[in-house]
Fold this sequence. Notes:
By secondary structure, this protein is an all-alpha fold. The protein has helices at about 5-20, 65-95.
Amino acid sequence: MSLARPLTIVIIAVALAGCDSNPTRPDDITTSVKTVTVNVPVPVPCIAVSDIPSVPPRTPITAAAGPEQKAAAVDADLKAYIRYAQLADPLIQQCSKGVTSP
Length: 102
């Protein structure tokens, strides 16, 4: 005789016996609700999106450009990025001090 059938019957009997019991609630469980205030820091943008300067576009350079043209394009890009930094730096300084823009 195989053990599978008696083992199945025992498992089913144990499962049904577990479902039959009525669990009692311990007396030490409280049913009251306690309200707790939790302070959550919320990031606030210090500058408006419209105040952020746009990143300057790169100066187009053709493949056939000579060294002088490439140097002039790189110089123009550098000047544009310097101007961008001059516009962005006050905004970064303003944010680091926690000041918001109007």
